[in-house]
Amino acid sequence: MGKTVLTVDDASTIRKMVSFTLKAAGHEVLEAQDGTVALSVLQSRSVDLVITDVHMPNMNGLELTRRLRALPGFGRTPIILLTTESDPTKKAEGRAAGATGWIVKPFGQEQLLAVMAKLFPG
Amino acid sequence: MGVNCWPLNKKGKTFFNLLRLAGRGETQFLSEFTALFSQLRSAEIDLQDASVTLETQFLATSSELETLTQFGDRFVQQVEKLIILATGRDCHGSVFSKAIHLIERSTQFLVECQEETTRMLGLLRNCSVQIDNLLKIESDLERTMLPLKFVQTLFKMESAPLGEGVQQTFTALTQEIEGLHGQLREIFGTQFKQLEETRRVIEKVIVQLERQAQSLRQVITTHKAQIDSSLEMLKQEIISNQDRDARLGTLSKALAREVEQVVMGLQFQDIVHQKTEHVRAALPEIETKFTEFEASPKTAGRDSLQFLRQSSLLEAEQLQAAQAELARAERVIQEGVRKVLGHLSEMDSHCLSLDEFKLLTTSFDGMVQVLVEMIEEVRSLVAETVASASEAYEMLRPLGSLASDLTARLRAVSSQTHLIGLNAQVQAAAGALDRRGAGLEVLSAWTTRISDETNLASRDAAEELEQLAAVLADNVRALGQLKANGVAHQTSLGQEGQSEERQLHAFRDTALETLRAIGDSLDGIQAQAQRTLDTVEFTTFHQETIPALRAPLIAIAAAAERWLQKHGVGLAQASLIDGSARNYTMASERVVFEGVVAAQRLANPTPTEVKQIPGENIEMFADSSAVAGVEVPQPAEPDRNATLVTANTSPAANEFGANVELF
How far apart are alpha carbons B363 and B356 in whole angstroms? Predict the structure, then answer.
């Protein structure tokens, strides 16, 4: 069954590629260009998954993750950080902030779909 | 990712420094550095503008790719639909095979009808022989019983001189004989005549069944040949469709792989953008070092220029890596789109062979037509067989009871004749006792003989009739069964045949419609692939914009190197740029960084293996021969067969790949 995914990235090409990959697999994709817009989107829509970049203007992905985890009812929603960053310290920060996973760009479509399948079996 | 633009030098400050350094022979260096930094700033501004354009270009490619893949998906679905229709993969057999099996089943039924008809024909021919035998028995009986009338008269004459009691006895006997005679007349004269009618009916049935059997034989032979040929065609068609199906699967996977590569390639806009942003973030520090050098060449000169040199080289290397990645991404995207088109064309030629569109169309139409006609023919033949069996059944059914009736009556006659014979013997014996009826003895012996012969003939006739009745009953039963089976088969054939005909027509219509849609899709795909390819044009960014920023950095490094050499400063230095590591968040950037740092320790000079003269926007000073010789290294030629992987990956570490980790 299709899921609703929010992709957060200041790079429109990345949002487009995430959207393209997931929509083709039957999911609904919402887009936001930074953490602030993402929070605004989430006020009116509930989602099954958030895929966010780390480095973004206004509000970065780690801060967004922390804010989301603090929201009621968002404790179990998976949050994947999709970034060019591969520094283990940053990765640990992401984990501590409450992220569910870490994907380094560029991602493969199959990888992203495999992650979806793992997060939402059946 | 947001990086502030580095602060511009104030013209006045530069001028002041130039004046101050002029007396020490450093003017040329300062002029050169000033010009190069000016060029660097200008290139940086161009880079920002070009980045926006690049993002727009990537987005345009993304949109076109999305449309292309939608076309592609639709095309694959259409091809798959056609193959599924043809192989019947999802419905336990194709419409063709189901239709052929229906005809095959009906033909098998007709074969059984034909075998049964042949068997009945054999039996009915025997019936005819039996009736001949019976008619012969009839004439024998007639002949045997002919003297009975005469015997009766003689009995009257012989018994006349005897007592009244004897006369009465013989009168009763002769009346019995008369009654028997009357019965036989009735049997032979009326009912046995019906046997002739029976024979005519049976002969009629035989003719009808023979005609039916012959018709069945002809149709079965023709159909068997058609079915064999259709099954062979179908077998070949299914094999080739299964082959197409397998190729479609392989091509679909290949298609998905190419699209995946293109999708990865398109993410390099963001990756390259971030890399150039990281370079831009490092530029203010480089200019700060230059400012320090300007302010105090003697005290700060050596370390500042060492840093300037190392840092410029480092950023130039980072730009080169970004340039190479973008060039590779561009090539991968272009090749990916071409391969997508190639795979789709391959599907066309190998899976469908649209060149044979007309042939295929005719073939589908032809096969459907032949099968529908065969179903119709079988249906009408089954109906004929049922009608014929019903008619034969109706004709034969009353014959059985006639035979049974006759048998019973003949047995009664036989038994009565036997009694008359016995009675005659008794009476004759009684007459002989008083010696007055010697003639009666002769008569009673005669009567007994007639009685025995009649008894024998009527028993034979009864047996023949019994057999005839049994055969007729068997035939009636068989015809009844044939009729019932025929009606049942007719009903099922009627329902299945209609459904099969509908499916065949639906298949033909869908197949033709899908084939037409596939033809249209392919034209659309080719146009869309070209539109997509037209948008993949990032060369300005990686062949001009990045080199334009990189060239002044290399020139700055070369100028710093000349200054250091002029002042006897060795190039082998501990790395002064260790702190720059913080600028790089990507593993690939750190690899470049570590390479540059290691090269500095080994006193690796400024790159000289480069080939291209910097662009026109680089201003060269008259005596800067070393700088003039500096060329921009070209990005390494990407491996055409290489697939794009993340810049940060190492060999796969988990089920998703090394760049994915679920906590």
Answer: 10
CB A94 within 8 A of CB A82: no
Spatial separation of the C-alpha atoms in residues B653 and B659, rounded to whole Å: 8
Distance (Å, rounded) from C-alpha B379 to C-alpha B591?
Answer: 80
How many other C-beta atoms lie within 10 A of the C-beta of residue B474? 15
A106 cis-preceded (ω within 30 degrees of 0): yes
User: In CATH, what number is assigned to the domain containing residue A73?
Assistant: 3.40.50.2300
* B585 contacts A55? CB cut-off 8 A: yes
B483-511 per-position pLDDT tens digit: 888 888 878 877 777 787 787 777 778 77
| B contacts of A110 (beta carbons < 8 Å) | 256, 260
User: Rounded to an integer, what distance in angstroms lies between the CA atom of residue B209 and that of residue B385?
Assistant: 9
Task: Return the bridge partners of B450, or none.
Answer: none
Q: Which residues of chain A lie closer than 8 angstroms to B647, CB-CB?
A: 84
Measure CB to CB from residue A55 to each of B1, B265, B649 and give the nearest one. Answer: B1
Tens digit of each residue's pLDDT (9 = 90 or more) over B600-657: 766 555 443 333 322 222 222 223 232 222 232 333 343 444 444 444 444 445 677 7
Q: Which residues pair with A30 in a beta bridge?
A: A6
Q: Is the ipTM of this complex over 0.95?
A: no
Distance CA B444, CA B460 (A): 24
- What does the DSSP 8-state code read for residue B147? T
CA distance A113 to A111: 5
- Where is A32: in which H helix or E strand? strand A28-32
- Rounded to the nearest 10 degrees, how much is the dihedral formed by the CA atoms of B323, B329, B330, B332? 140
Contact A29, A22 (CB under 8 A): yes
Cα distances (angstroms) measured from residue A11 to each of A33, B56, B267, B270, B406:
7, 11, 9, 6, 107
| C-alpha pair distances (Å), B188 with each of B180, B182, B399, B419, B478 | 12, 10, 17, 21, 30
How many folded domains does chain A comprise? Answer: 1
Considering CB atoms only, which of B59, B260, B644 is closest to A109? B260
Q: HEC profile for B616-641? A: CCCCCCCCCHHHHCCCECCCCCCCCC
Domain spans, chain B: 11-89+251-355+531-628
How many other C-beta atoms can be found within 10 angstroms of the C-beta atom of residue B390? 16
List, as ranges, residues 51-90 from A with C-beta within 8 Å of B.
55-57, 83-87, 90
Residue with tokens 């420094």: B17
Structure tokens at B120: 């009945």
Side-chain-side CA neighbours of residue A8 (13 Å): 32
Give the range of the structural domain holding residue A26, as residue numbers without chain letter: 4-119
- Tens digits of residue pLDDT in B98-141: 777 777 787 788 788 888 888 888 888 888 787 888 778 777 77
Contacts of B587 in chain A (CB under 8 A): 86, 104
